[in-house]
Amino acid sequence: MKKFRSVDACELTTMHCGGTIAVVYEPETREELKRLIADLDSFFVIGGGSNTIFPDGLITTAVIRLGQAFASVGMQGDLLQAGGAATLRSILSYCATNAFTGLEFLAGIPGTLGGALRMNAGTPDKGVMDAVVDVELIDSEGLHTVPVHEIPYGYRCGGFGPRAVITAARLRVEPGTSQEVASRIESFLQRKKNQPRGFNSGSMFKNPPGSAAGHLIEQAGLKGFRIGGAKISEIHANFIINDGSATTADIRALLDTVKVRVRERFGIDLQEEVKILDERL
Ligand SMILES: Cc1cc2nc3c(=O)[nH]c(=O)nc-3n(C[C@H](O)[C@H](O)[C@H](O)COP(=O)(O)OP(=O)(O)OC[C@H]3O[C@@H](n4cnc5c(N)ncnc54)[C@H](O)[C@@H]3O)c2cc1C
């Protein structure tokens, strides 16, 4: 197993902020991962880091990033099987090449399958868990395969326990044509063309029932509002953009301001979608 010391947290997340991670472990086998989890009192798993923000300063909680041995994509019978470290991009590229349809709604979402399952990532009306048949994971009790009907998932919540590390999953796909799959992927990518660019974590807040967090934040007059190096995007108010100098404290302060202003104006408590870690893990 690879072990990296003093890793700059900026390099592991798309928000590109945070302090120094004391140790990042990179297991390459299920056995290594099982032993590691059994040995660690607390840990945090990182995938593509597109929904995660690490704290400033020294991060002493161990961080686990699955090695490339967990990034395979292929078919098992008529189900698509992919490892927890496979990127959604590599899964969609496999589907386009091999003419399998059903997962195109994931196009343009950065990160890994493990992160996507934990977040139940997707569009406003569909999450990746809707396509899952079963999930292989390792937790304190060892390696299990859990059928989807036993997983209590919901909107932007995969329904997994805090110590579960997702190592693989099987998803439903249907035969199609490469051209049709590529064109559906392209149409989902087009919808994301107008999203803000730069260092960010995608949507910071979940949409409250019947409303859109970005709309509420905009109506609260916060578009363009800045604290330190972190700013509410002028393009999409549910995005925070790091100009390259933001600390996690700047982002935290901005999130807190948004929550207070939206509560004052609309009486709605916004829930964070992004995972901001602290050392109380
Ligand atoms: C530009 C941009 C656009 C985005 N668009 C969308 C969108 O359209 N829809 C959407 O839903 N999201 C979107 N996101 C958010 C994010 O991309 C998704 O939530 C993504 O699925 C997170 O995957 P990740 O591997 O980067 O997760 P990470 O940020 O690495 O981790 C997210 C969570 O998953 C956990 N985790 C990671 N890997 C594993 C594993 N193997 N086992 C168990 N837990 C694990 C982490 O501990 C953490 O709690 C966007 C983000 C960005 C930056």
Task: Give a written overview of the molecule.
24% of the residues lie in helices and 26% in strands. It is an alpha+beta fold and 281 residues long. The chain folds into 3 domains: 2-64, Uridine Diphospho-n-acetylenolpyruvylglucosamine Reductase, domain 2 (2-Layer Sandwich); 70-191, Uridine Diphospho-n-acetylenolpyruvylglucosamine Reductase, domain 3; 213-273, UDP-N-acetylenolpyruvoylglucosamine reductase, C-terminal domain (Uridine Diphospho-n-acetylenolpyruvylglucosamine Reductase, domain 1), CATH 3.90.78. Strands 1, 2, 3, 5 and 6 form a 5-stranded mixed beta sheet that branches. The radius of gyration is 19 Å and the shape is globular. It binds flavin-adenine dinucleotide. Flavin-adenine dinucleotide is lined by residues 14, 44-52, 66, 84, 109-112, 114-116, 118-119, 121-122, 164-166, 195, 200-202, 275.
Tally the helices: what do you get?
A: 6
Q: What fraction of the residues are assigned to beta strands by DSSP?
A: 25-35%
**Please, what is the average pLDDT?**
96
CATH topology-level name of the largest domain: Uridine Diphospho-n-acetylenolpyruvylglucosamine Reductase, domain 3
Largest sheet: 5 strands, mixed
Task: Report helical residue fraction.
Answer: 10-25%
Number of strands: 19
- Cofactors, ions and other ligands in the entry: flavin-adenine dinucleotide
